[in-house]
Amino acid sequence: MSAETYDLPPLEATGVPRARQMLERARWASRAFASYDRASVMRIVEAVTRVAEDRAEHYAEWAVRETGFGVVADKVVKNRLCSRGILDAYRDHDYVTHRVDEKQKIVEVPRPAGVVLALTPSTNPVSTLYFKVILSLMTRNAVVVSPHPFAKESCADAARVLAEAAVAAGAPDGVVQVVEEPSIPLIDALMTDERTDVILATGGVGVVRAAYSSGNPAIGVGPGNVPVLVDATADLPRAAAKLVASKAFDNSVLCTNESVLIVEESVADRFLREMSRNGAHVLDDAERDRVRDTLFPEGRFDTGLVGKDAAAIAAKAGVRVAPRTRILVAPFDLAVDEEPLAHEKLCPVLGVTRVPSAHRGIRTAAAVLRIGGAGHSAVIHSKDPRTVMDYAVAVNVLRVAVNEGGSTGSAGFNTGLAPSMTIGTGFAGRSSLGENLQPKHLVNLARIAYSSDVAERFPDFGAMAPWSAPETAVPAYPVASNLDPGSGSARPSLTTVPEDGTSELREELRRLIIEELNTLIRG
Amino acid sequence: MSFDYGDFSFASKEEMLEKSREFWNPGKTDFWVETGVPLVIDRREDYFIYDMSGKRLLDVHLNGGTYNLGHRNAEVASAVASAMSHFDIGNHHFPAVTRTALAEALVRSAPEGLTKVIYGSGGGEAIDIALKTARHTTKRRAIVSIVKAYHGHTGLAVGTGDERFSKLFLSDRPDEFRQVPFNDLPAMEQALAGREVAAVIMETIPATYGFPLPAAGYLESVKRLCEQTGTLYIADEVQTGLMRTGELWGITKHGINPDILVTGKGLSGGMYPISAVLVAEHAAGWLTEDGFGHISTFGGAELGCVAALKALEVCNRQETRSMVHYISDLIGRGLREIQADFPDWFVGIRQNGVVMGLEFAHPQGAKYVMRHLYENGVWAIFSTLDPRVLQYKPGILLRPELCEELLDRTEVAVRKAWAEVRSSGRGGRHGERGAA
């Protein structure tokens, strides 16, 4: 064997080695957490939810101030939905206790992912952080949050507050951590580090593709481009109110917000008037051109306008609008790639195109999805279930919100879908996840499977309790073993004084002194 | 199988050992072969060392904490490697950017009251500096240490330790160096009563003596006695510092602000020799009176300072502290489980964080366990001055799987050592001599 030549260790970017150490600490935490029983887990989740909800306003204001995106009041709503709302939705679910299927002679034992790397976006920073942290804790995972650099201060603070609440309620130390100074090399290091068990990527296409290219298991989702079809059977006043509210919500930074309105010609004028009544400004052709040029200078979306309000965008485009205008509606004729208004717009500008029939509207919606947003979501306002079914079949999405606003409807906050800040876009949207992200996606099940032989008796597993509550702080503080009553029966000897004639006397004196000292220490 | 290291090579491990005997240290070379631990460390990485034979060992000796952060820790290694494009050892006569930066970092990390830093090139030199500093400050000559203490082998340090090492070189000075039994407060009180002692020097947990733990209140009382008698308290934190007890400096767990604190070994991550003495302002007089009072060409070598800055940063991270608590908890529990299976053999666990001494019911018990650990892929060393006790020093950045593997290997070694002891009868086949 000849000695190897060593490569010098790589000189990693500032902060990267420490970030890797966060993953190691998270592994220790996740191992400890994976043995917690359900009552302990729920106590932690309750405590974290409570502080998250209590600070919903605080972080909503902070996030808007830090990023310049969105609306404080709407972010308050989202922060509540992603704290109390999530807990309420999953309170009765159990991701901890084993489940017994006597018929199949199978026992399912939950096995958490381990270390979750949660990337959070700039548009929904704290709400996504709340969501991913609470999901991780419900499923006994440790989580390292890597916030978008635009929102790093509010997110780091929120993560620290949640971490403290979790530990105070008995969670293992290090169960929630946050990268305070995110950078591209640092995020890349975290994503590719083998100590990351699963990446939850929410953000731009680049981040999501990087997550999937990391070599680690990843749950990332593609972008949306949401068509909304309003057919002649729709309840027009109600649909208009829902649509405007959804489009205006948090200035459209949710990926589930409506992008293009497709309205049946026969009801179009009435519907647009209803929308105007709810705060929509329908642009004329000249105004539309100015808004289009403002939003898409040289054909590319100006990200500086993400999450800005309608008045600001109108002002920038030189369009006069009424003071209480909530959204701008921009008419166009053809949903094709070269039409900028048919693309995703993370701001309160809604494209609108008129169609002669519901059938033609379905074709147009399919066309919108060809431009972008495959696998994501669509909305329809209709009373005709046949149309709804045709729409769902033809339009390449994995959820269709019916007679509800897309923003919160597809995100599951006022539909029966799983409430979520991460919308799985499935195979079409290049994602491993086709549903709304929910706790069950962060747990595997180890299955105990008995022989199917009729003679093989299936024992009673129902009463077993493989998990337990932590006895002390986790981990226990390292008290010297001779001072720690909990460290076992065979105690180390306190002294190793050599034997001589005076040792007995010394022993006696020492005992007296120690007694005296102990009394003093106890006060 | 040949061993080609570029500028030198050996045809075999046997040839290497032969030359080691011939040109280096026959006593040491033979000792390990005879002890059943014929280790010549070749490759090393993480918490593993590899014998020339290729045998892999999980290192829980860490050379006394030198490899606290693992072997060739990537962060420290790359800091030193990149520093070599700008720095060398430097010139000790002058102020230096690296020495100043490290001194500030050390002071900011230290127990309250320590305000100045003096550098050495190794632990022994640092102890000498501490003792000289205490003598200068108090104008007293006597030094009190613990029976079976070990603080190094340099001129003054050797006097504080076991006479095995001082008498060999006619360097024992019983008039100046006095020893009292550990955990014996009346003896300490008596030793200090004459108010002629410059300093008490103590390891917070005496390593080479097998990590006997200070009894409740013992160190605190010694510190108080020092204050009452004008004696300085020197905390030797070479093995208990740098997060090994779950706090950066073990002495702070006792609420003690020492007058002088000594650190070395792991301070530079095992990549470059450096040691440091932190002194309180009231003991730092000579640095003003005669700043050239202690001179050391390699003391505070600038590359060492760069290594130490990085190692100190890693040790002091909250992530590291958290991990040490986890490691200490997991290994402590695991050892107690093993102990429960061998209550008549594995008779004690002395533990403070990842500073651990395992006691066995045989005068040379730790040597048996050491050998069986070696056979089972773990390197831990017995305590020279109490060979019943195995020094068991896991690294502070160990990952969970390695801790579990360590415990698995340890269980087998403890079991096999017990079987050997039982079958051979008590008495032991190994001599009293040993490593430091």
UniProtKB/TrEMBL annotation, chain A:
Family matches, as SUPFAM superfamilies: ALDH-like
Enzyme Commission number(s): 1.1.1.1, 1.2.1.10
GO MF annotation terms: acetaldehyde dehydrogenase (acetylating) activity; alcohol dehydrogenase (NAD+) activity
Domain Aldehyde dehydrogenase: residue ranges: 18-412
UniProt keyword list: Oxidoreductase
CDD domains documented for this protein: ALDH_F20_ACDH (cd07122)
Domain of life of the source: Bacteria
PANTHER family: ALDEHYDE DEHYDROGENASE-RELATED
Protein's recorded name: Alcohol dehydrogenase Acetaldehyde dehydrogenase
Organism: uncultured Nocardioidaceae bacterium
